[in-house]
Amino acid sequence: MMEWRVRGCVFAISFSCFLLLAMAQITAPSEVNALRAVKRSLLDPMNHLKNWKKRDPCTSNWTGVLCFDKIGTDAYLHIRELQLLNMNLSGSLAPELGQLTQLLILDFMWNNLTGSIPKEIGNISSLKLLLLNGNKFSGSLPDELGYLSSLNRFQVDLNKLSGPIPKSFSNLNSLRHLHMNNNSISGQIPSELSNLSSLLHLLLDNNNLSGSLPPELSNFPDLRILQLDNNNFSEAEIPSSYGKLSRLVKLSLRNCSLHGAVPDLSSIANLSYIDLSQNQLTGSIPSNKLSNNMTTIDLSNNHLNGSIPESFSDLPSLQKLSLQNNLLIGSVPTNIWQNMSFSGTARLLLDLRNNSFSNILGDLNPPANVTLRLQGNPICSNANSKITRKFCGSDAGGGDILEKSTDSNLTCPIQACPVDNYFEYVPSSPVPCFCASPLRIGYRLKSPSFSYFPPYADLFEMYVTCSLNLDRYQLSIESYAWEERRLRMYLKLFPMVSNDHSSRLFNKSEILRIRGIYTSWQFPPSDFFGPYELLNFTLLGPYSYVNLETQGKSISKGTLIAVILAAIACAAIISAVATLLIARRLARYQHTLSRKRLSSKLPIKIDGVKSFTFKEMALATQDFNSSSLVGQGGYGKVYKGILSDSSVVAIKRAREGSLQGEKEFLTEIEMLSRLHHKNLVSLVGYCDEEGEQMLVYEFMRNGTLQDWLSAKSKESLNFGLRLHIALGSAKGILYLHTEAHPPVFHRDIKASNILLDPQLTAKVADFGLSRLAPVLDDEGTLPNHISTIVKGTPGYVDPEYFLTQKLTDKSDVYSLGVVFLEILTGMQPISRGKNIVREVNLTRQSGTMFSLIDSRMGSYPSECVERFIDLALRCCQDKPEVRPSMLDVVRDLENILKMMPEIESGSSESTSKFFDESASSSSLAYSSRDSYISSYVSGSHLVSGVVPTIRPR
Predict the structure, then answer these.
(1) Statement: the pTM of the whole predicted model exceeds 0.85
(2) Which of the residues 44, 229, 748, 798 is marked catalytic?
(3) SS3 helix, strand, coil % of the chain, rounded to 5?
(4) Range of the domain at 623
(5) Which of 34, 252, 548, 765 stands the most exposed, by the fewest C-beta atoms within 10 Å?
(6) CA angle 782, 784, 787 (to 5 degrees)
(7) Is 748 annotated in the active site?
């Protein structure tokens, strides 16, 4: 007991400091209440740390999330999972949550939290699960949430959110589940969301969305569920392109004010569920055969005409065909059910009410598990009393009831199982009359792809037990009910049966394991059952001890003392912090004054690199006049400077927030001084005084490759020149990977970091993010990667590096491949929500690749372009192991150059003037006036008409 008290006090002290400091910095009462509520839940480690998993090996005997050897206000930095679901918390979330920079899971589901979602959550770049559903959050969704590039699951459904869907959400490249249903979100669905190439489930139903349905949503390569029910897309039509969602399982657009025709969805192989009811759709129902997996077709309450398609008679899994309240005519085909083989639990509902069906086609004698509704059709006014009596009444029929065998319970003695203590007989126990206490779980399927559950009950039980690593008999479905197309159920999980009846309960570790699988979303994905929700995980009777409520009470005094001590300690900390801030400000002032003297004392001399004074830099740039500014980035601004010897240089001046320490800055200069290659920008010198850090490079008068690819550029590059630039860039990077000592990974290759000299020779620049390649470890082995925080520019970053934080030479290969695609197409890596790699792959698969080629490139040999495209896409493969090495890239580019035809030097002045005499201009400098034989393709005739523009930095 004493050990628990000590641990509780240690935990309370460390976390109370953080919470009290946070409360001292805010004024909103609701935020104070929220922090206090969170504090109350966190100060009882026995009660709630069971929901958390420790990621850092800080201790060996505790299941918490803090490193207890680091007591203090910074302890919260080590939290990996914050799960406070279904705890009746109130108040609002504090912005200080954004300081939990190592967080992987943020879970506040099923509480009573109010207020807005803090934009500061967007700072948690590591976050994978953001689960805020089932609360009372209001206001708009912050744009900053689009920064969560690692996010896999985003759930804010069942709140009171309003405003539009931020376009920044198109940057959530890892997102697979986006659930925003049951809110008041308004505006149009951004077409930019089509950039989410990993998305599986998009649930936006029950909102106030309007406008049109973006055709671009058909670009989702892996989308399984598209659910947009109960919105107001007034006058909009269902884009025919949705028939290209090749992996779709469920399409639900009920009650969306849609017009136009029903799209042809016959090419979607696994489609199981279609609900387009309660719209204003017109025309006939498409006659092409739908998927054999089809369970539900609901086209009711529209303005459809024509007859029932004959293809509906060949759907073996059909459960529901609802066509009521339309303008359909003709006959009711009885072969819809005659061609089906029904199992004992199968059912078919045919709802054809309120149409204009005049007769029955075939023998009207459906089996008992077929419900036919014909009320409101002319056929019901005929004299056939059999039809009128059986199919024209208002009887609902077709109830959804799951029958369970209870034979084992009937033969067991009632007194032998203490029901009052939450014990009961295991229904399907392999040992007769085995009595045990189950775990009770509230569970909901949010978007299942069926309308009648009993035929899939066994499959569902198998799915759940396999996911939990339990035997089939350990699961019992106690009850279930449909709630607005969602299936709510209550499950019982029984402990494993043993012959001696000695263990009739789950032990604590098993309870935590099962609950952990649910709360960390470790269930394998099931497109048919769709996404799930854990509504509650009730611990009653003999399991109440897991809450540790009695032990929690026994340490309450110790916890109270800890809180008081923490408050006193934090008051002292606040005073110390104030003193420290004042001291730092004075030190910074003194540091600035003495910077010049300090740097002059540093004993460092680097061959070939000159140390400039601040005065020399100021004179070279006319005191850093804006007229000398040629660019800027995250590091700082870049100026054009003229030195005292009249040489022209580029001076990169670090902004204050980018300043490094003296040692780090000079170490970087020493690294850059060792890199010498004709395709790398040369370092001329540096300045490190008067609080300034500057790097001086040779000046590239022709700017960046990005400038030349821009549609605003006055001069264009033909294919030969672009190929020459690509080869130069690859050679520069090959030098970094193989000839530099030690080798260097660039980590930020992009078109704006490839500069062009007067002869248009490519020179790779900006090594601010570069990292040295791995070296031999103590065992003499060479690691194949560097573990590092992800850096780089969106659109160019290797997806494998992004996910694993493992940097390799193949990361540079991927980035260069993106540059190659830019060279070919003139497109930006990410433009208007479209990713260049995915766009080029899609057009290549469809055989329309040449429609993306930059029209400003002029004519080109098609075979060479095709090989260049192939090389670029191989560089951009998701898996690093299948990408070529940089040496292979250089060799392939050289081979493509050899394929280029020898042509008379009739190049235009605008291109040939950039090559010196040593260049092979006969094979490189092609003008737009060059004419090729018929085997070559003129890009100007194949442009799609929409070429994304690029603005140079």
Answers:
(1) no
(2) 748
(3) 35, 20, 45
(4) 610-698
(5) 548
(6) 110
(7) yes
